[in-house]
Amino acid sequence: MFLRLFILLGTYNLVIGVMFNIKPNGQKCLKEDIQPNQLVKGEYEVTTVPGQLIDYIARDTKGHILSKGEHITKGKFTFMSEVYETYEICFISKVPPHQRGIEQEIKLVTKKGVETRSYEGIQEAAKLKPMEVELKRLEDLSDSIVRDFALMRKREEEMRDTNEKTNSRVLFFSIFSMCCLLGLATWQVLYLRRYFKAKKLIE
């Protein structure tokens, strides 16, 4: 059982590394859902091309800027999430009008939550053995997984409540529509009956 848990926690990786190309005067954004009060760290490296510039900006869905940099080549960034939301980091290419641009390669590695902690410092401060440090890391990682599942369960409950409310509203609207149609059909029958009687087409 402990071995299965160890393998599960070992495969639960919070480090995300990507490599992509950005076209001249283009823009590429990467989005990710992040829990509230979670530290995010990132490292980037951009292939340099004479005359071409790359900027980056990290922001939330409301447009609040969390981190940004201009004319980047290689560096790091950090920011703290305030609420559960989708955050994005965008890379923007800038090429002078008189220059023919070429694609640039960007390498990005992001860490969040447990992976941002320095367990080497914890080992030195508490004088822990390597196995104890690894167990501490696994304990923090398991807590992070539990919080993720709790958040997923909460979101699932909210979505289920929304679906149930929507279904009830659709049901009431359907019943109301049927009542309106039945009332209209009854009115048409009575009106036509009076009309035909007035024209003496029926008795």
UniProtKB/TrEMBL annotation:
Keywords: Developmental protein, Membrane, Signal, Transmembrane, Transmembrane helix. It is found in: Membrane. This is Transmembrane emp24 domain-containing protein bai. It is a single-pass type I membrane protein. The chain crosses the membrane at residues 170-192. GO terms for cellular component: membrane. The keyword Transmembrane applies. Residues 27-137 form the GOLD domain. The keyword Transmembrane helix applies. Coiled coil: none annotated. Residues 1-17 form the signal peptide. Belongs to the EMP24/GP25L family. It comes from the Eukaryota. The lineage of its organism: Eukaryota, Metazoa, Ecdysozoa, Arthropoda, Hexapoda.
